[in-house]
Amino acid sequence: MASTTVINANATSKLQPSTAAPIEPLKNDAARLYTHIHPILVLSLYAFKFPALVADPVSTLLGTLAPLAVLQIAFVAVCMPPTGGAPTIKKQKPGEKKPKGPGQLEQRLNSKIVPAFLSLLLTAIAATPLLTTTLVLFGAPVSTHHLHTLLCGAHIAILSTLPLVYVHGVNGETWRQIVALLLPMDEVYGGLIGTVLGAWLGAVPIPLDWDREWQKWPVTIVTGAYIGYAVGKLLGGTLLKGKKIMFD
Amino acid sequence: MALRTILLTVANLLIPVAILVFATGFFPYKPFMPGLAEYEELGWDNVLGQGWQQPPEAPFDKLIFMVVDALRSDFVYGEESGMSFVQSLIRDGTALPFTAHATSPTITMPRVKAITTGSIPSFVDVILNFAESDTTSTLATQDTWLAQIKAKDFDDGKGKLVMYGDDTWLKLFPNFFERADGTTSFFVSDFTEVDNNVTRHVPSELLNSDWDAMIMHYLGLDHIGHKAGPKSPNMIPKQKEMDDIVRDIYNAIENEDHLSNTLFVMCGDHGMNDGGNHGGSSPGETSPALVFMSPKLTKVTKNIKRESPVQPKNEGEFEYYRMVEQSDIAPTLAGLLGFPVPRNNLGVFLEEFIGFWDKSSDRVQLLYRNAKQMKKIVEAKYTSLRFDETVLESKEMGFECSGPDASHLTDGQALACLWHSVVDTMEVKGDFVHHIYKFMREAQKTMSGAASNYDVARLFVGTALASIICGLSYFTLPSFRPVTPAGIYYTLTLVLYAILMFASSYVEEEHNFWYWATSGWFMCLFFNNMRKDWYSKWIFHPAIMALAAHRVIRRWNQTGQKYAGADDIVNSGIFHGGNSFVLWALIGATYMDITIRLSRHVARSIATFDQEQKVRNVEVESTDQNRMVGTIAVLPLCGTAFVFKLAFTAKDAPELTNGITGSMMEWVVTLDLIGLARMVFGGLLLSGSWITFAEWYRSKWRAKRGAQGNGDLAVAFFDLTTLFLLTQTKAQNIPLYLLFRLQFFFLTLLDLTPTAVTLTTLLLTQTSFFALGNSNAISSIDLSNSYNGISDYSVLAVGLLVFLSNWAGPVYWSLAGILLLGSHGRPQRYINTSELHVADWIVKEREFLNQMARKEEKSREVRRGAGGEWARHVGLMTLWTGGMLAAVMAACMCLVRSFFLPWRGGLHGMRGLRWGLGVWCGGWARGDFC
Questions:
Q1: Which residue is closest to A177 within chain B, CA to CA?
Q2: What does the pLDDT read at residue B680?
Q3: pLDDT category of residue B710 using cuts at 50, 70 and 90
Q4: How many C-beta atoms lie closer than 10 Å to residue B530's C-beta?
């Protein structure tokens, strides 16, 4: 019975490291400036809302969801090349067709609006449930705190996957490489890895006996995710840019 | 290669040495003063009067000492207490209530030691509490109030003692009692029988006049606590039952002439926390009740009216009336019954009772004897200081007592000063009582702290040895290139764990770290395997499935302190009462699985001797007929094991078998547990030897034919051990083994590198330890399965069973790790490679089979052990153990000063021991049978 699994494994393809270049931010002054302001804005939003978050996690997480999404969309729209603009190998893209508009401005807007809308949609219907499930698998409470966990998953999704969908679209091969950690490091990919690692490390202080209010679920996880995002984005965009996670 | 073996051997030999050295430094053996105390010449004729050499007359000559195990203060004094008679005595002034602070460890044996000797038992007593050896921990040679009563001359000769209840007393005081009837807490579910066995002796003993002290120790209330917590509906009826016993005894004291001078003491040896457990140092656990009762007490209580029931001093805590030390019981009994204070006593005579003596010289003498006895202990500790019984000048003392800043004095100097102020007031008749109590209290405080002094040099040596182990094993590791995810994760886990050692709250919450690290590792395995082999149904990827199983496993038992009592799967009610068939269905499935596995091994062993097949094939496959015979052969064994579990649970945790009714259950409960357990163990041994013989025969056969083949002994041994561990596991935890087996299966599907296998093993040994409901707290040690198949006490056998039943998870995963490393768990089929080329198959199929076959050969090579993988496994294990030990020991040393509770330090140390025993043994149980 186990042999079938082996055959399957045998039949599947071995992924090759991506040959694509790391995502470069757009080459204009607004993009160069805003890419550094953006993490500061995100962190300030979080820091500003932190006391409220500790006091009432659910409504605060719900309330900051929209501002965070707006910030993230603004970031990708201003700084990042939309999917297709980036030099990725495109084979087929279900659900996305490049509109052939007459006006130059309209085309530019369309080329941004469609991926932005798509990334928001995918973040909401695919990434959020997936990340919430992952949170549960990692030990999030099952019988209580449902909204807490769901909103926590949504925040992590907006931080990590929204920009990724915007720049990479829904190309299956690229996403396989994303999951297999084979993409070259850039701001967006660094942000994803940073967010996920940060959320994971955020669980460490929960069992400590400091008896602080902020040790409650899911404050530390969200905090870890935000800080991880900022750190990962910074490192991915500068120090580690273009590097790939490889083991010899 | 040889050097590496030597290094590893040395490192592993050093592990127990390091633990031993550290443990002796951390839990020093405290010398005690031998011999019985006697009344001695005091001097001070001018104060105490001439020729008084007789001690003051004692108000009581008989003692009834009633210990109710885990009698927390609020069970007697609180508003919801069921002990209304005791409360009425408190209001009448014929009972004096206290809260007696019990120092941790709050378990019975050290507490009994504290109550009877007046000293603070060292941590070693905790371990002895479990060892229960007859010789090492006995108090027969120590000075206790029992020994004093036995030595005292009463009207009718030397004192006589009788004892009914917990047999801890019989073990501590062998041959002390005229009559005794010991009870054991064998089944915690026994709430009534264990107490009735004590109570039935009470009426007749109250009519006997030949004893001078009667000791009773009731266990039922503690059992209720362990089973259902302090809020259990059984708690109030049990308190009422205890109250009725108190009423009977008190009425007898009032009415019987020969009991008229009897002091009646009721106390708890420790309390319990909100979960009903004890062992730690939370307020609930350290606050047992202490009540002195006698009609004569009105003499000392007439001035103070006491209310009852009352509220505790602080809401949510358990301090009722005055908080005294448990060790104060010994000197108080000495004063009230008229015998010398035991030698090693650190208790203080309770000042409420001083009113029994009208003459001031009697009072002074009584307190002075108590203080002088304590002074001797202080003197022995601070040998350089002077504790003379004459007034000294500050020149003779060597330092200034009074001064602008009293904080410059060391502990010893402060005590010396207090002692001299006592001597001063003896001379000039100052406020003697005030000064002498000040000295005694301070001495008690200082010396109790000194009781857990550490031997710093040994601590250093132990830590240094652990570091050497790290160093030695580090050099045995093969090169770190290539860098692998497993290598990185191993390093990170070890480093992070070492750091977290210093966060002392992670002592109780250690499980969270392991659960967290294991989840992360499974995710890491998922990503790593995805990049090697894209798996299209990724939701059902083995690593994800293993993670899902892990998620269920970690919720099975709630452990640790922060969320103690929180809901978990076991306690959620899905296994209780009428639902218990769910549990038993899962348990049945677990046993079924193991039956099928064992039957395969037996079938294989039968096939070994199949002459017909042997002519044709080198490797004899078992036929259907063999399988049938195999199943029939194992069924009795597994069936007996299952019935044993059912019968044991019906006695140990009846709430888990409620759903199973009918004649089968009635038959099961009549079975003899010891016999059943022996049958299981015997069956395991028999099957094990038979399979070993068959495998040996096979390998001989293979060698003769010069062929290669697979041994199956390791897997068979693993499955037999699993059945043994099931027998040693509580019923509600048995389904966990089904989940472990699932995880093991998923892990075999992943192509793990040797380092990854080692890391997985290490993480899962830890996870399984905590998932089975254990923790670093000593109170979580489960003794219920330690007497399986043993009719009388034997240290070695019981110790082994205790170890195996508490470390069952780590043992399971250590062995599973060895199988994973040798690729034993993989689907195995013997394929003759030469046949493949002849057969006319399609190319792809051939390639696949070729690969399968090569996998087989490869894993066989690994198993034959060029040594590389094994050495790496053992090396990593040793490095891990060494690293943990070094971290634990260093953390202990650093935190030693901040531990005001030696308990946490103890936990740290226990963890060190656990590591030494658990993982080290696991690591060394390497597969020589592979």
A1: B531
A2: 93
A3: low
A4: 21
Q: Which CATH superfamily is domain B58-356 in?
A: Alkaline Phosphatase, subunit A (3.40.720.10)
Strand duo B62-68 + B289-293: pairing: unpaired
Give dist(CA A116, CA A113) in Å, integer.
Answer: 5
Amino acid B627: pLDDT: 87
DSSP A19-68: -SPPPPPPSSHHHHHHHHHHHHHHHHHHHHHHHHHHH-HHHHHHHHHHHH
User: B99: helix, coil or strand?
Assistant: strand
Q: What long-range pairs does B243-246 form, CB within 8 A, spacing at least 24? A: B243/B82, B243/B83, B243/B84, B243/B85, B243/B86, B244/B85, B245/B66, B245/B199, B245/B202, B246/B66, B246/B83, B246/B85, B246/B86, B246/B293
Q: How many Å apart are CA B221 and CA B209, to the nearest integer?
A: 29
Within its chain, how far is the Cα of B196 from the centroid?
28
Token pair listed for B708:
């290669």
Our CA angle for B194, B200, B205, nearest 5°, is 130
Of A177-181, B399-403, B598-602, B918-922, the range with the highest mean pLDDT is: B598-602
For chain A, counts of helices (H) and of strands (E): 9, 0
Of A9, A181, A247, the CB nearest to B484: A247
Query: Which of the 8 DSSP states describes residue B732?
Result: G
- C-alpha–C-alpha distance, residues B14 and B154, integer Å: 57
Which DSSP symbol is given to A167? H
Name the packing angle between helices B713-727 and B580-608 (round to 10°): 150
When mean pLDDT is compared across B454-458, B484-488, B734-738, B791-795, the lowest value belongs to: B791-795
- In 3D space, the residue among B369, B308, B284 whose CA is nearest the CA of residue B106 turns out to be B284
Nearest to B106 by CA among B225, B206, B6, B23: B225
ipTM of the complex: 0.87
Cβ atoms of residues B760 and B747 within 8 Å: yes
Query: Per the omega criterion (within 30 degrees of 0), is the bond before B482 cis?
Result: yes
Of A6, A181, A208, the CB nearest to B531: A181
Is A12's CB within 8 Å of B554's CB? no
- B605-B611-B613 Cα angle (round to 5): 85
Domain locations in chain B? Answer: 58-356
Q: Would you state the structure tokens that stand for residue B871, as one six-digit string? A: 């050495």
CA distances from B625 to A165, B24, B712 (A): 59, 59, 20
CB-based contact B560 A207, cutoff 8 Å: yes
Token output for B436: 């002498």
Residue B478 · residue B868 · CB < 8 Å: yes
Joined tokens for residue B115: 């109550």
Contacts of A180 in chain B (CB under 8 A): 527, 530-531, 534
SS (H, E, C) A187-230: HHHHHHHHHHHHHHHCCCCCCCCCCCHHHCCCHHHHHHHHHHHH
Long-range Cβ contact pairs of B897-901 (< 8 A, separation 24 or more): B898/B504, B901/B104, B901/B281
Q: Does A52 touch chain B (CB under 8 A)?
A: no
Strand order in the sheet with B161-166: B179-183, B161-166, B213-218, B62-68, B262-267, B289-293, B95-101, B322-325
